[in-house]
Amino acid sequence: MLREHLAGIAGTVHEAADVRSALAIATREHPSVIFLDLRMPGGDGGELIAALAAVPELAGIPVVVVTGADVGHVPGATAVLGKPTLSRRVVADLVARVTA
User: Count of domains in the chain?
Assistant: First the structure.
């Protein structure tokens, strides 16, 4: 669903199956924003946020947590989006705000 919302907003969208591949993609591609779920195979979103923060070249990338859980603030995340409120407009507005 997120890929559909990003169509026309993001030039390229990469998908990662787990924390390890997400870190590898971020290292190789240096994306302008990262959307992630807190529940990921091979670790959780918090582990990925910490791993990104530990690499100076990746530490500044905005990280948006997309979750169905009511988590409020996630340490190290730029923003948290609830899956029930996910829409193209919300995603577009958020991308514009965090990449400005």
Answer: 1
Enumerate residues 6+ apart whose C-beta is below 8 A from 26: 34, 52, 58, 61
pTM of the model: 0.90
At 42 the pLDDT is 79
Classify residue 77 as left (phi > 0), alpha (psi -120 to 50) or beta: beta
CATH number at residue 63: 3.40.50.2300
Give the C-alpha separation, 10 to 55, whole Å: 24
Q: Which two tokens stand for residue 80?
A: 């948290």
pLDDT, one tens digit per residue, over 60-91 is: 999 999 988 887 888 999 999 988 888 999 99
Range of the domain at 52: 2-98
Distance of alpha carbon 98 from alpha carbon 95, whole angstroms? 5
